[in-house]
Amino acid sequence: MVALNCRFCACELTETVVDLGASPLANSYVSVERVMDLEPFFSLHAFVCTNCFLVQVPTMAAREDIFDEDYAYFSSYSASVLSHAKNYVDKMTERFKFDAHSQILEIASNDGYLLKNFKERGVPVLGIEPSRNVAEAAIEAGIPTRVQFFGVETAQSLRNEGLLADLIIGNNVLAHVPDINDFVAGMKIALSDTGIITMEFPHLMQMLEKIYYDTIYHEHYSYLSLFSVEAIFAHHGLKIFDVEEIAPQGGSLRIYACHGQDGTHSVDARVKALRDRELAGGVNSLARYHDFADKVHRSKRQLLRFLSDAKENQKTVVGYGAPAKGNTLLNFCGIKTDLLEYTVDISPHKQGRLLPGTRIPIHAPDKIKETKPDYLLILPWNIKSEIMEQMSVIRQWGGQFVVPLPDVEVLA
Fold first, then answer.
1. How many whole angstroms separate alpha carbon 48 and alpha carbon 53?
2. What are the residue boundaries of the Methyltransferase putative zinc binding domain, all occurrences included (predicted)?
3. What does residue 50 show for φ and ψ, rounded to 5 degrees?
4. What number does CATH give the domain 287-411?
């Protein structure tokens, strides 16, 4: 086997968290015109570093190939995401008093869904977004956005222009960077002397406890705990002074950081309390990770039994959503159109395409009313409440919702 090294501390990776086999890039949706073309699959094997306990997948595809000019995820199509963004801006403005004299920088700003809330308050904003088609949507909406990846080079350019950030935002991006040292070092360069950083990312402990293995895919290079992120930030001269446990993505963390020498922010007791809970939960225990792999395979068998039994009983099952996490789940379980006839998605950027690997067709949500399925499998389970409200019509013909993880759950 080729030697693999930790992307933070460079130690050799030898311990498996879970091997999900080979899978296509999770956001590489297939056009109908290319249905006969070959599709690249890459190893999807998660490791844990025995030195720093950063969980990670090796870099199988260049970031330019993943976050390309045809990136399919637009944040503005989720009511839950929009609500979360507005609440975040309300909270940050109240706590840190950002105003017209402040500079806000968001990394991986997508279509401007979050920054528009600051702009409406008269606070200067700048987005950094590598996917051109998504960035163009933000620019059309009036959000200043630069099409580039963030790291030391980009940060130094911003500093040279005098654009130092009083707040650097990174929601669901820290896990998406192949060179995490370059990324964190860049934030320190771009941060004003008294500025703060907030990062939101799925919490590793939630993934381990709730068997959310579908959050593992190639553009998620790292799977993060407070324990590992503290070490990475400290290595680059940044101090985590507060942390919150928040709901998105099935359970995430929001960390607050500043320059290590900034005495403005004392470290809140919540940081130590969560760090202690992680250690008690086995974040630095190899046995904890080995147990996770066993539960992943058991979860796979349970979902396949449900779908097979539904088919044998002549029940129809279709999907709701075409999220990246759903593509990991479907490819790992080998679920194709014989078990899941189609899926629907509210985003027009996905409709009319096929899911990568499984080639399950994606339709607009109106398809549900046409075919009246017995079960609706919710692939973006993290927003199941939003989906169940949107698709309550299925109850009219006795349809039921199904959530695949952590255990198969049928909901009326």
1. 6
2. 6-67
3. -80, 0
4. 3.40.50.720
What 8-state DSSP symbol labels residue 342? -
Note the pLDDT tens digit of each residue in 353-386: 999 999 999 999 999 999 999 999 999 998 999 9
Residues 294, 319: Cα–Cα separation, whole Å: 26
Measured from the Cβ of residue 70, the count of other Cβ atoms closer than 10 Å reads 13
Chain segment 161-216, per-residue pLDDT in tens? 999 999 999 999 999 999 999 999 999 999 999 999 999 999 999 999 999 999 99
Nearest Cα neighbor of 20 from 67, 58, 66 is 58
**What average pLDDT does this structure show over 32-48?**
94
Reduced 3-state DSSP string for 97-136: CCCCCCCEEEECCCCCCCHHHHHHCCCCEEEECCCHHHHH
Tell me the whole-structure pTM to 2 decimals.
Answer: 0.90
Question: Where exactly are the structural domains of the chain?
Answer: 149-281, 287-411
Please give the CATH number for the structural domain made up of 149-281. 3.40.50.150
Kindly report the backbone phi and psi dihedral angles of residue 194, in degrees, each rounded to the nearest multiple of 5, phi listed first.
Answer: -115, 20
Of 145, 239, 130, nearest in space to 177 by CA: 130
Angle at 321 between CA 316 and CA 327, to 5 degrees: 95
Cα gap 44→31, rounded to integer Å: 23
